[in-house]
Specification:
Length: 314
């Protein structure tokens, strides 16, 4: 049965069909064109968005805040220091209060479970602005950027090189499998996603015309890739793993040699940002002609606005 997007939360792409993801992308492309034409609308007028942050953010915060605010909505930025969230008050109780005051909630933090509790107890649409498990709004911007570059998602090959277990890799894996993008995770054995998760993604890929390869071989993994993607080696909250990650991932740095290994002239480079240049990517690739990182960062805003519009039914 078709559920429609109105009233839905956005916690993981696992909850969305290929058609729903495409509807969000189509809306995002339209919104981007509208903005370039300076077409101002007030589709969020008199609506309120609670933005809860346990971790820092530049792009996600600014995307949600400007997307919602510039259309007449009222976003309220709240950090763990401002709220009792999970310390003096349970997440369930905080959620019940927010549910009586706001129209929707964005959450960035550690546990995916916190986002689920916020959804259950507030009764509102909740948007995952990054947890340890997933970063689904990032993947929407990644897919939009790939579509802009190649005019399609179907048949595109994307190779993610780096920490294969992190939130960005896991969401990208799901997003690609749902939309017909052939996805390769190139990562050392110790950082490969859990096998049960890979198996579920392979099933999704089979249903949607995509394929999944997880390998520790850079040569094998990046061959014929239209897109090379990387993310930081040490995600927020993993600072104590710094030395071990640098040792494990130094051979997986995206540099010009790795870009050339795709064998394609038109391969583009993507990174969710923020980047640690000299670690996961060289300055040369980051600043080079294949880099689309600023388009990708801008597309955070258009895709997030599309998610807000469609789920709020505005
Ligand atoms: N890519 C991303 O989520 O960036 P921020 O951490 O700045 O929000
Ligand atoms: N994997 C990174 C993504 C930052 C946007 C982190 O969680 O820190």
């Amino acid at each position: 049965m078709k559920k429609g997007l109105k009233g839905r939360s956005f916690l993981t792409l696992l909850d969305f069909t290929q058609e729903e993801i495409k509807e969000i992308l189509r809306t995002a492309h339209t919104l981007k064109k509208e903005r370039k034409l300076h077409k101002k609308k007030l589709r969020f007028q008199a609506k309120t968005l609670a933005m809860l942050f346990e971790k820092p953010s530049t792009r996600t915060r600014c995307s949600f805040e400007t997307a919602f605010g510039e259309e007449g909505g009222y976003p309220v930025f709240l950090t763990s220091q401002d709220l009792h969230l999970g310390s003096k008050e349970t997440i369930e109780d905080t959620a019940r209060v927010l549910g009586r005051m706001f129209d929707c909630i964005m959450f960035r933090g550690y546990k995916q479970e916190t986002a689920q509790i916020l959804m259950k107890y507030s009764g509102l649409p909740v948007y995952n602005g990054l947890t340890d498990s997933f970063h689904p709004t990032q993947t929407m911007a990644d897919l939009m950027t790939i579509e802009e570059e190649f005019g399609t998602l179907k048949g595109i090959k994307c190779a993610y090189v780096g920490d294969g277990r992190n939130n960005v890799a896991r969401s990208l894996l799901v997003g690609c499998c749902k939309t017909g993008v052939h996805i390769t995770i190139v990562t050392p054995e110790q950082l490969m996603p859990e096998s049960s998760f890979i198996d579920s993604c392979k099933e999704l890929a089979a249903q949607n015309g995509a394929s999944v390869l997880v390998t520790d071989s850079i040569e094998e993994g990046v061959k014929n890739a239209h897109v090379l993607y990387t993310d930081v080696w040490i995600s927020m909250g993993e600072e104590e793993k710094k030395i071990e990650r640098i040792v494990l991932l130094t051979p997986y740095q995206v540099n010009n040699d790795v870009m050339n290994m795709t064998g394609l002239a038109g391969t583009i480079f993507l990174h969710c940002l923020p980047a640690v240049k000299g670690q996961e990517v060289t300055e040369g690739v980051f600043e080079g002609p294949a880099s689309r990182v600023w388009e990708q960062a801008e597309n955070r805003k258009h895709t997030i606005k599309a998610i807000l519009l469609l789920t709020l039914g505005c």
